[in-house]
Design a protein that fits this description.
By secondary structure, this protein is an alpha/beta fold. The chain folds into 3 domains: 2-91, Arc Repressor Mutant, subunit A (Orthogonal Bundle), CATH 1.10.10; 101-171 and 277-316, D-Maltodextrin-Binding Protein, domain 2 (3-Layer(aba) Sandwich); 175-266, Periplasmic binding protein-like II (D-Maltodextrin-Binding Protein, domain 2). Helix content is 47%, strand content 21%. The chain has helices at residues 2-11, 14-26, 29-36, 40-54, 70-97, 116-126, 139-147, 209-220, 234-242, 256-261, 290-316, and strands at residues 59-62, 65-68, 102-109, 130-137, 153-156, 165-172, 175-180, 200-204, 226-231, 247-251, 264-266, 277-283. Helix 2 crosses helix 5 (70-97). The protein is elongated, with a radius of gyration of 24 Å.
Length: 317
């Protein structure tokens, strides 16, 4: 085993390891080439050299699909650890050198995509040498990314259970029943859930943290919703309400503009709003760059203004 390790150290490069890890993660040579800004022949050559150094194939192609061999699976696990440690070391070194640009990666749940981009825009205006990449997904997707240590930090509806993370409350994210301004319930006050038994409901997809919390409230009130459509994402739900296809339970932050214009109204339904929070989360031991720390500081500041705006919309509605 020691001879094999020595052979890998002597003949493999970190670039080859990075190329291999990217292919394994994306299950695609072409997508790896695109992410790394390399040509596909270059990517293939790098992996071939790595496989030659280990004297064993790392991938097998069946049809159009790429699969790791057993040796590839072993190397993939090691490559992830090596690259994660190198990234952590690089961030610590940058911190020692001071703040002079860099790259920030973050992932947020879909309800936060209406708040965070504005903050990023303001941040990049102040720090033009910093690039920021934001991924949007549901809770399940973000937990996967945390496990793979793919980002600097995350914004979720609640800290993930069973993971070693640091977390703190960022801003309230209340959930309310909403409807189109011309919906029959738009001007009704003190609505009981049983009054909505036959009202068509637009619902988020399974795997959404929002959906699981909504279902818990429904169960508490012994309410079985009349689900008309299951929609994948807040934006599709927003459009459904604007088309008056049904009512929905939504995060107020995702509809602030529509509520302010009067196109969508908050319904006065018992048990609502559901008081949720956005949490900023990162793995314990994460070496945050100075740039990431500064973005987090700006997010905290802007969250105060968002909190005031949310309170106003709930009072006005």
């Amino acid at each position: 085993m020691a001879d094999k390790i020595n052979q890998l150290v002597r003949h493999a490069t970190l670039r080859q390891l990075q190329v291999f890890e990217t292919i394994a993660r994306l299950n695609s040579f072409s997508r790896a080439a695109e992410e790394l800004h390399l040509t596909q022949p270059t990517v293939s050559m790098q992996v071939k050299k790595l496989a030659d150094a280990l004297e064993t194939p790392l991938f097998e192609q069946i049809g159009r699909q790429v699969f790791l061999t057993q040796a590839g699976e072993v190397l993939y696990e090691a490559a992830q650890e090596v690259l994660a440690h190198l990234h952590s070391a690089e961030q610590r070194i940058k911190n020692l050198k001071g703040f002079a640009g860099g790259r920030i990666k973050l992932s947020v749940i879909s309800s936060a995509q209406y708040f965070v981009p504005k903050v990023i825009h303001d941040f990049v205006e102040h720090y033009p040498d910093v690039s920021v990449a934001m991924m949007v997904g549901n809770k399940e997707k973000l937990v996967e990314r945390i496990l793979k240590n793919e980002d600097d930090f995350y914004i979720l509806g609640q800290p993930p259970e069973g993971l070693s993370v640091e977390s703190f409350q960022l801003a309230p994210n209340p959930l309310v029943f909403v409807a189109h301004k011309h919906h029959p319930l738009a001007k009704v006050r003190k609505i009981k859930l049983e009054q909505m038994q036959e009202v068509p409901l637009l619902m988020r997809e399974k795997g959404s943290g929002m959906r699981s919390q909504i279902e818990a409230v429904f169960a508490k009130h012994h309410y079985t919703p009349n689900i008309k459509m299951i929609l994948g994402g807040n934006e599709v739900v927003r459009l459904g309400v604007l088309q008056n296809l049904g009512v929905t339970v939504a995060a107020v932050a995702t509809l602030l503009d529509e509520i302010e214009r009067g196109d969508i109204v908050v319904l006065d339904v018992e048990g609502f709003p559901i008081h949720r929070q956005w949490y900023l989360v990162f793995p314990k031991g994460k070496a945050l760059s100075v740039a990431a720390i500064k973005l987090i500081e700006l997010l905290k500041f802007e969250a105060i203004n968002l909190t005031k705006s949310l309170q106003e919309k709930l009072v006005l509605s």
